[in-house]
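Re: that backbone. Tokens:
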């Protein structure tokens, strides 16, 4: 099974007798490491209660398109950004038809329309409805739009018929969902990623730092691991748990981060500098705590080593990716960084927008590389990390 650790799965439940299996499906997804939220159509509530699925998922079940309790009253946008995968199980013939034609008359369909993540459908219906030319045409159109279709399975149906139309078993669906994240794009490769802030000491108790949370770098490390890479994460001080199956090296200062990076990139294929490294450090560090004696205090700063430029300048260097956190002229400064530091790619974001970037779960970036810039829309950092790793893996393939 592909890993679902730290994955956010939005389970959509539509009207059909197979809705009772969604309770077991929640448990299977959680057992594989996923966090699950549930959206139900009005028809689904006739077959299983929202309270049941809320108790199992540990999260409120979403039912209404216009939710005054949601941030900005746009619950469908919030849920669309939250999810790494939308899994609709069971997916009725009616819902498949409406989704195929882009209808948005309920919460679940609008979430699907607003989402940039992968959508998977687990059809469940009578065999004659499944065999219907209309249903088959709708399914083929959805496949052409890159939606994943899980099943249906063959077997006995509630109506007494035998044939295709049964929803796949929950354990099978959890395996299929996991396999969507197990892309293998970086099998056999080594990826080194820096993340979080650095701390530059003033004395034993004070330091200079910044607001970086490390969320983007940690999400990239997880995505690289899931793509098959041997992944090393060099992390400044953050409030995040080390990603599973990733070698994490904890550091404090920029000099320590550089030392660790140079050691790890010797046999690396990709280096991603996602850390927010302090540009300057105090010229000297007080041995004892500095006392508050004067109204003013002058601190002399010296320039820190440029980690990403140092790695990019190595004779035998990995494919090197930098980040640019800017508050103005985003594209201009990112392009300058790409050229001056001899990078293969710069991932730039506007940190003046407080809804994204530092400390946020979402980000919106501009990919800057020689000959082409690509803007990506606002999305959850976990989803963005997978898209970035896919893009970087493509760059590595063309570089060879």
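Recovered sequence:
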């Amino acid at each position: 099974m592909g890993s679902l650790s730290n994955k956010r799965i939005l389970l959509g439940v539509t009207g059909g007798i197979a809705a009772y299996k969604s309770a077991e499906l929640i448990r299977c997804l959680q057992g594989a490491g996923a966090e699950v939220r549930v959206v139900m159509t009005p028809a689904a509530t006739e077959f299983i209660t929202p309270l049941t699925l809320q108790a199992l998922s540990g999260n409120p079940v979403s039912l209404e398109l216009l939710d005054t309790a949601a941030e900005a009253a746009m619950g469908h946008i919030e849920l669309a950004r939250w999810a790494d995968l939308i899994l609709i199980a069971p997916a009725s013939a009616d819902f498949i038809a409406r989704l195929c034609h882009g209808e948005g008359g309920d919460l679940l369909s609008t979430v699907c329309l607003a989402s940039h993540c992968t959508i998977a459908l687990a059809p469940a219906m009578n065999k004659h409805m499944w065999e219907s030319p209309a249903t088959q045409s709708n399914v083929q159109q959805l496949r052409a739009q890159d939606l994943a279709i899980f099943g249906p399975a063959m077997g006995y149906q509630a109506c007494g018929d035998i044939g295709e139309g049964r929803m796949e078993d929950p354990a099978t669906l959890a395996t299929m969902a996991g396999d969507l994240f197990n892309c293998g794009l970086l099998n056999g490769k080594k990826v080194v990623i820096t993340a979080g802030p650095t701390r530059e000491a003033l004395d034993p108790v004070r330091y200079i730092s910044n607001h970086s949370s490390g969320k983007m770098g940690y999400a990239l490390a997880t995505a690289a691991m899931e793509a098959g890479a041997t992944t090393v994460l060099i992390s400044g001080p953050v409030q995040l748990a080390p990603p599973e199956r990733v070698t994490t090296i904890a550091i404090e200062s920029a000099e320590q981060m550089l030392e660790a990076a140079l050691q790890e990139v010797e046999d690396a294929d990709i280096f991603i500098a996602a850390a927010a490294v302090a540009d300057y450090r105090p010229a000297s560090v007080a041995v004892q705590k500095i006392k508050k004696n004067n109204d003013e205090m002058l601190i002399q700063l010296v320039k820190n080593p440029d980690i990403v430029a140092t790695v990019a300048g190595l004779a035998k260097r990995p494919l090197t990716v930098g980040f640019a956190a800017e508050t103005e002229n985003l594209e201009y400064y990112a392009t300058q960084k790409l050229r001056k530091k001899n990078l293969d790619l710069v991932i730039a974001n506007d940190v003046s927008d407080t809804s994204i970037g530092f400390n946020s779960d979402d980000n919106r970036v501009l990919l800057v590389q020689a000959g082409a810039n690509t803007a990506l829309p606002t999305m959850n950092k976990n989803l963005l990390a997978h898209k970035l790793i896919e893009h970087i893996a493509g760059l590595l393939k063309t570089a060879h």
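The longest strand covers residues 319-326. Residues 190-399 form a domain with the Rossmann fold fold (CATH 3.40.50.10300).
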